[in-house]
Amino acid sequence: MKTNLKNIVLSTENLSIGYQQKKAKTIIADAINLSLEKGKFIALLGKNGIGKSTLLRTISKVQSPLSGTVFINDKNLNQYTNKQLATKLSLVLTERLPESQLTVFELIALGRQPYTNWVDKIATQDLNKINWAIEKTEIKHLQEKRFYELSDGQLQRVLIARALAQDTEIIILDEPTAHLDMHHTYKIFQLLKKLVKTTTKTIIISTHQINLALEIVDELIIMNGNDVLSGETQKLIDSNKLDALFPKELLTFNKILRQFTIRKDN
Amino acid sequence: MNISFGSVSIPFLDIFYIIIGDDSIKESWQTIILDFRIPKAVTAIMVGSGLSISGLLMQTLFRNPLAGPFVLGISSGASLGVALLILGSSVFGGIFLSISFSNWAIAIAASLGSFLVLSAVIIAANKVRNTMSILIIGLMFGSFTAAIISVLSYFSEAQEIQQYVFWSFGSLGNLSWDELAIFFAIYILGVLGVFTIIKPLNSLLLGENYAKSLGVNVKQSRIIILVITSLLTGVITAFSGPIAFIGLAVPHVAKLIFTTSNHKILIPATALTGALVLLVCDIIAQVPTSEFTLPINAITSLFGAPIVIWLLIRKKKIYV
Would the N or C end of chain A have less CB density within 10 A of its end CB? Predict the structure, then answer.
């Protein structure tokens, strides 16, 4: 076990991720050694199909690693029950919610399930957390609406509020800005940044908004091929680690502008 | 209300006196009320609420508005059991011939049948991860047993087929207080079980992955839901025959009326609606002021289907 000098909330040791079908292993990435600090906004970057979702699913115990270990607060992920983990780590997924008549308030209140009693009674402290989450995400005017009446941007804020109500140290969001326009994408990034600053939560997102992520997040996890790197944004830029993110023929990374640009000679 | 209708009309006030134990009323009326109509009303309440709750559980579990208690092959299992008992006697020779087909024999055959088919579905459910596959496996078991019943009917005699068809009409009557007691015990067991899974049911509204991230043991909840449904539907089908429509439609009616998806409200609401609907259907089936009694299974669909269609057209949206 590593010495925990820097408040590491989530770390991996020789983690190998992928799929196991009968005897055939499909390794997506291996020898992943991450250590993520408390109170950081972290973006997971990588091109389509590289395994970002698989990595997020593995560190949130939705699927098992092929080998290696994930630690949350220095405790092996396998030693957490679903219920214990639900108080440490919450999720915002890309999948569409099944149709139902849940109101925004009810949906956010579901985030309190790990804490409520067997009939799901909302106690005062649960109500406080729910209202706090609603306030933080500025959706008070939406709380009586049914979730299917919301726009994509509003729904994303509601789902973030639900994760906030779950009161966990880590929130993992899988492509939270996938269906959003530039304005709403920026708004979500800004909201997450603010949450990281004002709470001590660690927020991990996977995203394709690379240029924006480079501006806003604290740290990056870069997936390319079998290689998974992580570190502070500026350090990774300085050491030219972003170049490998995409094939060279179309896009290059411009260090001065801190963004990817289209190659001029094309 | 329900109790006062039947081929012999008995005034409300007299019914009240009979229930509170006044012996001065006509003895034949007392027998009709105490041994026939009250058991029938109690049966209607349990059947209506039980099937409706089962339907609600299936719709939430499969997140599919078309799911009902019978999609898992429970009714086909029960039908198979009864068909083997009634129709099978001539096909397989004299083994069963000596048995007169009492309520008990039919109830046991139906329970065994539904239990066997359901165990097969639950075993299959444990092997596949995808909830939709379970739905399809249930439907496949359904067509499979329907095929066996067709083959059996082909080789059976008219009288036996008639007896089988009568069972498949469904019936709320004919239950003695002894049978009712067993029915009630299993019914209560199922209903109490439902209250232990309100939380997982609500979080399943967000999908299985979210439910899991909220600390729900999805696999275990799935099995509890399947067991409760099979208990309720199994015992209902065993004693009252395969009563269609209620399990599928009543949850939708309740969702439309109460406009909520929260199972804390929805479960009692659905149970109440189901009980009411079946009591009303039973009154209609009696054809008040006449001597006929129509098959309950026909009434539930005949009057229920147009109501659901009307509700849907008016509200325009259907929810899981």
Answer: C
